[in-house]
Structures are given as structure tokens and as C-alpha cells.
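Example (one chain per record):
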Amino acid sequence: MHYDGRVTALLLALLLAPPDPAAQQARANATRHQQALAASQRLLHAWLKNADPKTLLLPDRVNNPQRIYTPHNSGADLYPYLILIARITDPALYHGRMMEMLRNEIRFTNAKAGVPGNYDLNTGKLGPPSMFGAGEYAKDGLITVTEYLGRTPWTDRMIDMIADAMDQAPVQSDFGPLPASDSELNGDYLQVLPRLYLLTGDARFLAWARRITDAYLEEVLPGNHGLPSMNWDFQKHAGDTKLKLRDHGNEIIVGLVTQFALEAQIGSPRASRMQPVLAHMLDRVLASANPHGMLYNTIDTVTLKPLDERLSDNWGYLYGAVHTFYQVTGQAKYRDAVRHVLTNLPNYRNWCWEPSSNALINARKDARLGSFDGYADSIESALYLVNREPVPEALQWIDSEMQVMLSMQRPDGHIEDWYGEGNFNRTALLYALMLSQGVRAAPWKPGLALGAVREGRSLLLHLGAPARVEFDFARHRRVHNWQTNIVRLNEFPEWFTVDENTLYQLTPKAGGDPLLRLGSELIAGIDLAAGDWTVQPQ
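Predicted structure:
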């Protein structure tokens, strides 16, 4: 057999060539991406087996005779993340059963106008309208679906539900009716209302957001040492001098900063009045942190001393607000605070974020790590922040702690048999999209290895098999109408984004003719062969 010398030389060159670090990283990312999506898909199908046969709604807990659907638990923390993994892995399921669940959620749980109540799946009994249910379902669930997928029927559900809830706001104050007297629920609504205003242009949402904002800036913060109070009596004008810096308390801080970003964007004079008050609030929060920048669960608003010395697994929710404040004001000390806590994350490997007495947790060999939910929230926290500040120590910590969380899943797909397992899916999806730089297969199937690495303005994309892939775009601007990509709780960060009207060249690394496509075509989806591809704007 005759061998062409040039071919032999080429083969030798390929064999002797040093490995391409970017290509190696893309393949490693593809392996972890596959692992995260497979875990999410297993959880999806595990929960669908427990759906109510009549309504298809999901109970808050499995293996529990009291089968209750609640909008603030199953609706807020579970259902939305099943919607998203169905969209990514099974379009027929997304358009079919997930949509039927929405129809039935509206049909069976609307208690007063669009405000839902708890629904007993055993008896068919509907409870009273729940302001808490509406606020949580919107903030933790429907806003997330909208952040990633844009306007869908779930967005329309949220818009009308929140409008109806604000019309029913029960707490009287000097500023008008409010959703609640506690920082959690008022914060839920204040995180949603500014986003709905930008999404719809409906002035009611802006007016309602300003009502809550004024109540806190003009009454609660001045009366509580510059910080929110967990509970505030708007008739007696007094609070409890306690503040949770984890969920069920920190929501109002995030909401106030989100509203500040909106006021600054629309050029409102309110922004300049809000800035010093919010700066003082954030400075006090940061002053309460430990030397690594970690926040305690609960603090005294007078002394800033911890009332609960466990560390908050939601630390990054508040640091997201800190970073947003930096993005709006340009004050570098707030960015420095974010980078400081990210740099110190290696001190918290295998940390027990949420100790628990749950028998299922204690039966695990890694029971000392506590509930998976603490890992899900803490890693979520970091993912929002490294998208803006890619601190190497934080990226390495995310990889290591994701392996801890994923290892907690049982062979049947469940982890701890409660609605919070949706948070497992949320964080797994956030992680997978970081590993693919926002590129998704349409649809993803088990065994498909898809990973990517950013190289300046270009992307190196690895595909283990031929696939149709969809690229991400500037959703914050094109869909949600934010001029600046501020950190938003319950968002899906943008990684490598294409511009609709820019041409991109897709070049197969193995050789062959490059493809030239508009960004809009890449967003809609493009069929690519297996292998490594370089994606470059022209």
C-alpha cells in the first residue's frame, strides 16, 4: 500500500501537537453538562409519577397521605423548573402536559379573581385566596420561566395574578394598601413589580412598586436603624429589630435595589433620593458579615450582631443586590465586596448550609452535609455572581460543590421527597447553561455531550454527536427591557450571546467549509455535525 508522504506528515503533526487546553475544557464541560441535565431529567420524571390523576397538579410532598398543592411551595419551587427542563429535553411534554398543568392550575386553584389558594388533592377543596401564594408563585416561579423563555402563557398568568393580588392588598399603611406587614412578602412583590412594568409598560405596576418602596424608605428603614424589619406594624409604626439575611426575610432588600435600578433607568428623580438610603442599608448589611464576607441567618438591626450564627445559604441573593447597586452607581467598593466573598468561597467546601433532622437526610452516608437545598441555594448564589465577576476561586468552588449536590440524588430521581427538589433542578440547569455558555440542544437527549468555552469574542463549542443547537441572546435587553444586565434574583444568566443582526462564522476544527449565519438564525437553531466548532462574529 502506498502512503502519501504529506498525509503521513500531517498525521504525525496531529499526533505530536500539544493538546488544546480550550478544547479539553470544552469536552470536560460537556461531560458535566450531560451529568447535570440527566439528573434534572430524572427528577422531572420522578415527580410526574406523583401527579394528581385528575388535575395533574403536584403535591408538596411525596409519600405523604396529605396530598396538598400549594402555590407558594409546589407552584413556586417545583413546577417552574419542571417546565424548564421539559422545554430543554422534551418539547412535546413542554407543549402538552406542562400546558395542561397550567390550565388546571388556573381552573382549580383560582380562589378570588386570579389569586390562587391551596388545593386539597384528596378532597378537591380549595382554600381562601393567598397573597403569599401569589407572591411566591410569581417571584420564585413564574418570573423564572419568563426570564429564560420570554413571554409565554405562564407570563400572562403572572401578570393578571399579580394585578389581582395588588387590588386585594390587605395591609393599610400611610402609603396605601400593601401586600403584607413582613419583609418577605412585600419583597416578593417588589422583586416582581418592576420587572412587570418594564415587560408590559403598564403604569399600575410602577405605581404599586413605588407604594411598597415608599413605605420602606420613608417609614421602615428610618424607624429600624437603616435596615428592614422582619415584621413591621404599619399602624403602630414599629418593628421587631430583627432581620433575616436568608430567605423569608432578605427579599425586601433585593426588591428595593431592583426598584432603584428601574428608577435610575427611567431617569426618575426618585433614584437620587433612594441612593443614599440604600447605600446605608447595604453598608450595614456588609458590616454584619464574617471576615470572609459570609452573612449570618439573622441579625439584630441595632447592634448588627448575629441572632442566628448559622451562615445564610442565600448570601449571594444579597450580594447580587450589592453588585446591582455597583452597576447602577459605579461605586467600586460594592464590586470589591462581591469579589471578596467570591474569593473566599474555597473556605466553604462541604459546608453544612442547612442542618436538618429529616430522616431521609440522616440515613445518607453524607448526612453531615445537611439538606441538598442549602447547596442548591448557595451554588445558585455564586452562579449569578460569577457571570459578572468570573473569580477563579469561585468557579472552582462551584464545580466541586455541584458534585456534592448531584451525589445526593437517589436512583429513583428524588432527593428528599419534597417540593424543594425543584431548587435542585434550578441549580442544575443554571450550572449546565454555564458549561454550555448558554447554547442548548433542541432538544437535549441523554448521551449528548455539549460543552463550550469562551475565547474573547469567540466561542469554542464541542458536540459529541450531531445536533440542532440554539444560541442565547441579550434577553435582558431584547425581552425584559433592562438597559443594563443587572443581577436579578431568579434569572438565568446570559453567557455567550449572539446579536441578531451580526454575521457569525462557524468553522469546524476538523476541517471543512465554514458556515456563515446571522445571529437571528443561530437563535432560531442550526444543525451542526459532531466535533469542535469555533463561532466568531464577523
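Caption: The longest helix spans residues 21-48.
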